[in-house]
Amino acid sequence: MTPTGTGQPLGPLAVLSEIASRLAEGGEIVATVTDVIQRLRAALDASEVSLWLHAEGDVRRSVVAGVPSMSAADVGAALDGAGPPALVARRLVTMGQRIGVLAANDVSMKGDAPHLVTIVANLLAPELAHADDKHRLTGEVARSARQVEAERRFTARIIDSLPLGLYVVDREYRVQAWNRNRETGYQGVSRDLAIGKPIFEVLHRQPADALRAEFDEVFTSGRIQQFNIDSEASGSPRTYRITKIPMRLDDGVVTHVISIGEDITEWTTAQERWAQSEKLAAIGQLAAGVMHEINNPLATVAACAESLSLRLDDLRRAGCEVPPQADEFTRIIDQEVQRCKRIIDSLLTFSRPKSQEKLPIDLNAVVQQTLFLVKHHKRFKRLALHTLLDPSLEPVPGSYEQLIQVVMALLINAADAMPENGAITIRTRRGVTDGEAAIAEVIDEGSGIARADLPRIFEPFYTTKPPGRGTGLGLSVCYSIIADHGGRIEVDSAPGAGSTFRILLPNGNAPARPAQAAGAGS
Ligand SMILES: Nc1ncnc2c1ncn2[C@@H]1O[C@H](COP(=O)(O)OP(=O)(O)OP(=O)(O)O)[C@@H](O)[C@H]1O
Ligand SMILES: [Mg+2]
Fold first, then answer.
1. In terms of residue numbers, what domain contains 456?
2. What contacts 382, CB < 8 A, 6 or more positions away?
3. Which of 426, 461, 463, 502 to probe ligand 1 with, by most ligand atoms within 8 A of CB?
4. Which residues contact 419 (CB under 8 A, 6 or more apart)?
5. Whole-prediction pTM value?
């Protein structure tokens, strides 16, 4: 018998009790089994002891102490009693299931081998089955934990990728989810600071009572609530759509509320522009019809006034007495008819701008020519005129005269908005897209325009100027001319803060678009 670690040979019983105690100690099963096999080998003086484990009835692997010379065929034959004489093989069976085979090559043929291998096989079988179960279970738990984690990260990534601010509160108003969008921006709060805190502490700038009422409404009604709010917290006026959505963890009561904040400023501006262009188009159509009807009688009045004046001359030549006011009256009739004609021309330009040939135009040259025209006018003498012209401006297709008309109308309005001294700045610059290749801004320090009035200023005849001072046609004509160029007019203005009128013109690469409403956003 091969000496053990103590140097003393061990009898089969001592070996068995040692093996049993090793198994009872537990620990890492593979290490224990290796030890068991070593001991079996020592007890039998066998050089070859092998443990084969089955998977679904097949010999799958030799986990420990696998011996190359011991073939699966020999082990199989030994089980049927037909193997090589020295080969002892015993099935490992537990709970009626075959889980493997323990085989030993009993070279010394001491006769203990069959007995010993059978007992060890019986000892090993339940331990191995248990270890296998445990191993499989641990694997499954780890796998499903990984899967759950992957799903959680996937959902979090979706929520973080949304271009919306999103958070979730529970019934105690404590924050349970807080997406990336809510971490950034002026009012951003980091997720670590928000999670678990009452929402009123996190959004401390908002009135707690109003916020609580919004959540309570969803908790009690179970219905989605939606409303828009205007905020200047980011420094510029923005409009947000807030949606509060009830969430139920099961089919019962509302357990959480999902709150979503979406910046809809651009959308609202586009809607307003669209509504305004629709309205202006309708007014234009109406005006065109009325003007057409007025044009003919007006021409008749003008012709009558002219022939009346000729008649007066004839009478005077014939020595007849002519009432002293007659000349004055015909002159007034003529003046007023001319005034009406100018109004009609403007209105017709508004409703159907005479589309003139568009040539490459330097917007800087347009600005300079307009300034040259207005500079000597007494209205502009008391004002400071500044220019900031971008020399890199590319030419855009346009009508030189019409664009001068637009810049002139904007300059006159700016001057009118500043009854005392003040400065007007005209700035040109390049835009970022083909649709706004050349931009000109007329910036004044005047009275400014109330937000409520902004949508009306492009309507024909809308004026706040005293009678005889303004007809209210200047901006409506500008609007039509710029729309005919495929561009648009924007306004930034607030009472007391001056106004900036901005015309944006496309270059030749921009896709042609239908007449665009003038933007009126402050
Ligand atoms: N730069 C500005 N600052 C303040 N208000 C302005 C400015 N430009 C236009 N407005 C407002 O818009 C209204 C309409 O302007 P618009 O040019 O169409 O007509 P108007 O100047 O009143 O008359 P018209 O141009 O026909 O002589 C003005 O009456 C004024 O209330
Ligand atoms: Mg005007």
1. 359-505
2. 421
3. 463
4. none
5. 0.56
Taking residues 78-94, what's their average pLDDT?
A: 85
Same domain, 289 and 253: no
Which H or E run includes 371?
Answer: helix 363-375
Q: Is the distance from CB of 424 to CB of 414 less than 8 angstroms? A: yes
The answer to the question of residue 236 being in a domain is yes
Among candidate residues 473, 410, 418, the one with its CA nearest the CA of residue 445:
418
- Domain count for the chain, please give it: 4
Ion ligand 2 nearby residues (CB, 5 A): 413, 474
Lowest mean pLDDT among 162-166, 198-202, 210-214, 345-349: 345-349
Ligand 1 centroid–CA 501 distance in Å is 11
What rounded mean pLDDT belongs to the chain? 84
446 lines ligand 1 (CB under 6 A): yes
Ligand that comes closest to the CA of residue 475:
1
The tokens describing 456, both together, are 């009306």
- Name the pLDDT band for 184 (thresholds 50, 70, 90): confident
**Which of 228, 263, 298 is where one domain is finished?**
263
